[in-house]
Backbone:
């Protein structure tokens, strides 16, 4: 039977002995940390100021990929790790992940062998966890896959697979899994301050954004998994904190 948000709030307020982990931020990272901590038997609470996975995690590319551009940059270790994670997720969460076909159209004669070798290497890095083999495509095949492509000057193409996933459903599944392992997760509960004892962070001040009520929590470890809001939390700890994160797109 699902646990209501109101009951979780009461659990937080009536837990004077404190928590092992207090996680700030209910995006993909925070939810993943909650699953990890709770599944290891730690008393875990997660606080999210809005909907779970509302910010960066709701604006993802919806792709589970190894990062073809990182392969072009020569970061082999990163690509291998990402491809293995892609494969594990595809195997363990088949209700979330599906294979997505991509076609690289080639208009220069050197591009087809270049991209073909590159994507075969991409396949090889995935090893047994590969989700589909890349192929060389003729002009006709590229046209079939991309009907509106300009045919003039087209040499051919290369097709490869990456993963596509439902990020909202993944977030819900992480919430469910963390809860099943005993974690207490509450959304619309914003952290308004950090509590300190002997100069070290020992808890947080929380505001229920529905009722306006404030209360405090004690914790052995406080994890800042607030994503783009990381500097807001850091400013609660360090006076005159200099921003460490800035948008990669849009206005700064």
Residues:
């Amino acid at each position: 039977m699902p646990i209501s948000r109101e009951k979780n709030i009461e659990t937080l307020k009536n837990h004077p002995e404190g928590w092992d982990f207090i996680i700030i931020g209910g995006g993909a990272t925070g939810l993943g940390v909650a699953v990890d901590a709770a599944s290891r038997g730690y008393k875990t609470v997660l606080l999210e100021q809005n909907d779970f996975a509302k910010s960066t995690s709701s604006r993802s590319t919806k792709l589970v990929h190894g990062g073809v551009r990182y392969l072009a940059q020569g970061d082999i270790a990163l690509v291998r790790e990402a491809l293995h994670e892609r494969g594990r997720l595809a195997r363990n969460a088949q209700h979330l992940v599906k294979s997505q076909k991509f076609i690289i159209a080639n208009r220069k004669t050197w591009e087809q062998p270049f991209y073909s070798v590159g994507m075969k290497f991409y396949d090889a890095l995935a090893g047994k966890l590969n989700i589909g083999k890349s192929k060389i495509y003729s002009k006709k095949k590229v046209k079939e896959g991309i009907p509106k492509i300009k045919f003039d000057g087209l040499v051919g193409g290369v097709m490869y697979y990456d993963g596509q996933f439902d990020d909202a459903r993944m977030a819900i599944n992480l919430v469910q899994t963390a809860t099943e392992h005993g974690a207490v997760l509450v959304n619309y509960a914003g952290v308004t301050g950090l509590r300190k004892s002997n100069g070290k962070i020992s808890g947080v001040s929380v505001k229920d954004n529905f009722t306006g009520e404030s209360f405090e929590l004690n914790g052995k470890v406080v994890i800042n998994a607030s994503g783009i809001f990381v500097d807001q939390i850091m400013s609660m700890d360090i006076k005159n904190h200099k921003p460490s994160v800035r948008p990669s797109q849009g206005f700064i």
